[in-house]
Amino acid sequence: MTAINQVKVEKVVINMGVGADEGKMKKAIQVMNTIAGKNGVKTSSNLRIPDWGVRPGVKLGLKLTLRKKEAEEFLKKALTAKENKIPEKSFDKEGNFGFGIKEHISVPGVKYDPKIGIMGFDVLVSLKKKGYRVKYRKIKQRTVGKKQRVSKNEAIEFVKTLGVEII
Length: 167
Hints:
Blueprint: E1 7-17, H1 22-36, E2 41-44, E3 59-67, H2 68-81, E4 85-86, E5 97-101, E6 121-129, H3 152-161, E7 165-166
Parallel strand pairs: 4-7
Antiparallel strand pairs: 1-3, 1-6, 2-3, 5-6
């Protein structure tokens, strides 16, 4: 792999689904703050599901996007919580991958708080190569060429360089 086509972490998104309970939402905000050092953004429903008591506008979850150095540091901690093992089916054909952590206290440096309890969250990672910005820039926006897209195999090789075992 040349230096031009080197795979990098574009962003890491942390998701927590908590439901419509406001008390759980406050606990989730505390958990997000302890695991990532930042407060998340509340996400709301767009659908109406009467059986579940869900209607448009109800706050159901929390998300946080990390980029650059923060993303890489958090990814290393989250992979440690997963014992540095990810199944191959967690990768998509575009090179993105995700995994869930059942207990937030398994993240290094996080201690159990009986007021909060134990909460789980999902970690979604988006990878990119140099030159991927042409898709998002304002002037002369273009589609990304095949060489600049991250394939599933390249994503797996990148994750292996972080010391992760693919199962």
